[in-house]
Amino acid sequence: MQTRYTTNPSDFKQYDTDRIRREFLIESLFTPNTFEFVYSHYDRMIVGGVMPVDGPQTLPAYDELKADFFLQRRELGIINLAGDGTVTVDGQVIDLSKKECLYVGMGSREVTFRSNQADKPAKFALISTPAHRTCPTAKLTSAEASPVDLGAQETANQRTIYKYIHADGLQSCQLVMGLTTLKSGNIWNTMPPHVHDRRMEAYIYFDVPENQRVFHFMGHPQETRHLLVATDQAILSPPWSIHAGAGTASYSFIWAMAGENYSFTDMDFVQLSDIR
């Protein structure tokens, strides 16, 4: 488990490309049979993934958490990005196919991940945040996530938004989580952009075609920078930063938020004329 610390937006202005990538880009999420985690000091969110190939993988405890087990004081959101698999929570086996989501509540002691086929492994994207109460462990399919089509072909941002963990979906303490899929021929996400100073956000990009990339834009609205992101890579977005992207092909991404405000619609939009 890596640890990433918070950044002052004034200091961010001085960062070169390598420093920005070290601080905000997570390049490896899915190593066979290994949990990959980054512990962010932004709202204590943990971003990670696991790809079981040679058998089941059980969520370990980490010294960084100073807990008897991973979810002793935390909650967990899981979205499968690849082949069919199962998640077993304290003996309860739950099937999870691509783009299906599972919420696991605080106090769950043993969480085990398995792929149904080794040659088509599941890729479980994992987002964990601190919790103060136990919410029910529950699953939601993409069809049940009230998909909403937004955008237009003329602005190259036709997309479908799936909201899984939020006030009107799977219940949680503070985690808000879903995903967005851009339609073929569309490349822009979250444009015009926004910030939400009351919480941070993480993006996990996936289904980016091989040899294609997403230009992810971040930074204070008047001091923007970009990162080139490949498939199965993640971005940590501070509360003061915009988060938007344009791909060289269409793609999908998970978005996850944590912080003071639980409302999905808590966004402070920035006019394009004000972006620098």
Automatic annotation (TrEMBL):
UniProt-listed Pfam families: KduI (PF04962)
Annotated keywords: Isomerase, Metal-binding, Zinc
EC number: 5.3.1.17
Metabolic or biological pathway: Glycan metabolism; pectin degradation; 2-dehydro-3-deoxy-D-gluconate from pectin: step 4/5
Record: residues binding Zn(2+): 194, 196, 201, 243
GO terms assigned for molecular function: 4-deoxy-L-threo-5-hexosulose-uronate ketol-isomerase activity; zinc ion binding
Cofactor dependence: Zn(2+)
Similarity comment: Belongs to the KduI family.
Protein name: 4-deoxy-L-threo-5-hexosulose-uronate ketol-isomerase
Organism placement in taxonomy: Bacteria, Pseudomonadati, Bacteroidota, Cytophagia, Cytophagales
Gene: kduI
